[in-house]
Amino acid sequence: MSQSRLARSAAVQWLDATPRTGVAECLAQTGWARTVGGSNPYLHIWARTGHTSEEVDAAAARGEVMELPCARGCTYLVPAAHAGLALAVGRGFSDAAQLRTAKNKLGVTDEDIQRYCDDVLEALAGGPMTPAAMKDALGDRVVNFGEAGKKAGITSSLALALNPLRSQGRVRNVPTNGRLDNERYEYVLWPDAPAAPENADAEFARLYWQWNDAATLDEFRWFSGFGAGRAKQAISGLDLVEYEGGLRLASRGEVDPGVAATRAVGHIDNLFHLRRTLAEHLTLAAAKHPVWEALPPGMLGNLPGQGWVREGMLIGVWDFDVEMGEVVSLCFEQAPDDFDAELGRLQEYVAGQLGEVRCHSLDGVKNQQKRIAAMRSCGGH
Predict the structure, then answer these.
(1) Long-range contact list for 284-287, CB < 8 A, 24+ apart?
(2) pLDDT digits (tens, 9 = 90+) for 155-207
(3) What is the number of other CB atoms lying within 10 angstroms of the CB of residue 103?
(4) Shared-domain flag, residues 268 and 371
(5) Which terminus of the chain is more exposed, N or C, with fewer CB under 10 A?
(6) Domain assignment present for 20
(7) What is the pLDDT of residues 303-353, one digit of tens each?
(8) Is residue 207 a part of any domain in this protein?
(9) Domain final position from 116, 144, 167
């Protein structure tokens, strides 16, 4: 990918120096932020707007943004204005797969599933509940699937009911402590969930190309999880034109790359995640840096830790040492002039607001220390 296209991609992703604001607006304009119990939603919004974690939490508490199953059935933080669309394009993935497994492996019937869902809705009629509280309230109506359920990844009727209820927009999960960097939830009824818009697939495709300067059909298929026919139908009415090996919205016009800025992003930032193209954002020297041999491998094309970006390029990696209370960084080549100022801003943000930076809910201090040791072994500090 050309340097000019990378710089334009950064501008489209709000990763240039242009001042911007709005928690929900950030997600609407740069894409839904993947949530896996880690710090990515906070870092995504902070890197682009400077909003504090408290401001993000407050937006979630007000219902302006929410965690929903959407693309490929995976959970993302989305603006409330996209809630109906997000639910529509996420149905038929993890929820459908779980139901098939329950029927094939556990002998569960459609009538059983309906009863399990009704039980959960009845329990939640009294107010928000954690799964443990629901289990206590429902007593022996909760079915434990035993060893067969463990092997199938479905331990009880609660687990089997909550997934389709979330997908249908009948209930939604909210973090028990108000924070997005964990997976401890309580569930609430959602009687006023928004309906899916007409032509949801086409609107999803339009948003996807709005979030990217350019992208290929295959990249859209990966992000959406759509099959070939569904993806082609979704883009059939869009004004897409060929552009530097990909497709872009003809209505976009030329993108001003803006003023370059160094930004700290999370391991699954949309600059890379939307198209799963991390390698395109590395110079040859950066791709050959010895730190890649020292770092644990990333999953699904994501960074193994957190990253430094500038003009669409990945220029370094970073992580937070909880024990020392400091950010540890490594630049692949000479650090840009604004790096020290941005590092200081990051240090203040992470130490003062997040306290820890995790890639996902199971990313504990032990994993973080491995990444930090790898960076330090290659000159990071």
Answers:
(1) 285/332, 285/333, 286/313, 286/314, 286/315, 286/332, 286/333
(2) 999 989 999 999 999 999 999 999 999 989 999 999 999 999 999 999 999 99
(3) 14
(4) yes
(5) C
(6) no
(7) 889 999 999 999 999 999 999 999 999 999 999 999 999 999 999 999 999
(8) no
(9) 167
Count of other CB atoms within 10 angstroms of residue 185: 17
State the angle between helix axes of 83-90 and 200-211 in degrees (0 to 180), rounded to the nearest 10: 110
Same domain, 268 and 372: yes
Residue with tokens 């710090």: 39
Q: Residue 88 domain-assigned?
A: no
Residues 163, 266 within the same domain: no
Contacts of residue 77, defined as CB under 8 A and 6 or more positions apart, other chains included, come to: 27, 32, 33, 34, 35, 41, 44, 60, 65, 66, 67, 180
- Strand (E) or helix (H) holding 49: helix 40-49
**Residue whose entry in the numeric block shows the structure tokens 């800025």:** 261
Pairing label, strands 313-321, 306-310 = antiparallel
Question: Among 123, 139, 167, which residue terminates a domain?
Answer: 167
Yes or no: say if 335 and 286 are a contact pair by the CB < 8 Å rule: no
Q: Where are the beta strands (DSSP E) in 26-140?
A: 33-34, 65-69, 75-79
Listed in sequence order, the residues at least 6 apart from 62 whose beta carbon sits closer than 8 Å to its beta carbon are none
Q: Which structural domain range is residue 287 located in?
A: 262-377
Number of domains in the chain: 2
User: In the block, which residue shows the tokens 């740069």?
Assistant: 30
